[in-house]
Design a protein that fits this description.
This protein is mostly beta strands. The chain is 0% helix and 37% strand.
Length: 171
């Protein structure tokens, strides 16, 4: 029984085989019994005791646990061998970013290029980089958002007499 390191997506469905343990015995017609003996936090994995297939049995959240070190064993009924199987969880972009609502007042005489607001957004996915866009409410392109920073600037002059309120939809 050998140590191994494998990977599985955090969105892998149940019953997907992650790894198959291989055991040998010099005795003829040996029946093996395989088991996970440690490291199976929240029962994320199952093992077929007869053939050594380790499969997904639960759900994974990379942001909570990115690696499992499973203690495994195989027995021929008399002797037992052990090994460690390291399962790396691969991060997926599976969380929706959250943007905070804001109310901002902009003086009518503000000049083009004035910083109006910095959008606050978060994404629970590890290592995610956010990009921002104004997807609604930007009448006459009055505002501009920098896609990489979420900073909103005045793009045109404002006229309080013709429009008093802008409700921007940010994505």
């Amino acid at each position: 029984l050998l140590n191994a390191e494998v990977s599985v997506s955090e969105t892998a469905p149940a019953k997907i085989i992650v790894h198959t343990l291989k055991a040998t015995d010099k005795d003829a017609n040996t029946q093996f019994s395989y088991a996970i003996t440690s490291g199976n936090t929240a029962n994320g994995f199952a093992i077929n005791a007869a053939n050594g297939e380790i499969s997904v049995a639960g759900t994974f959240v990379y942001e909570q646990t990115s690696r499992y070190v499973l203690g495994v064993s195989v027995s021929d009924g008399v002797h037992t061998a052990t090994a460690q199987i390291t399962v790396n969880i691969e991060a997926q972009n599976n969380n929706t970013p959250v943007v905070s609502n804001a109310t901002v007042w902009v003086p009518e005489n503000s000049t083009t290029g004035t910083l109006v607001h910095s959008v606050v957004a978060t994404d629970a996915d590890a290592g995610s980089s956010l990009s921002y866009a104004i997807v609604g409410g930007n009448t006459a392109n009055a505002f501009y958002i920098y896609p990489n920073t979420g900073k909103i600037f005045l793009n045109n002059t404002l006229d309080f007499e013709s429009k008093t309120t802008y409700t921007l939809a940010i994505e």
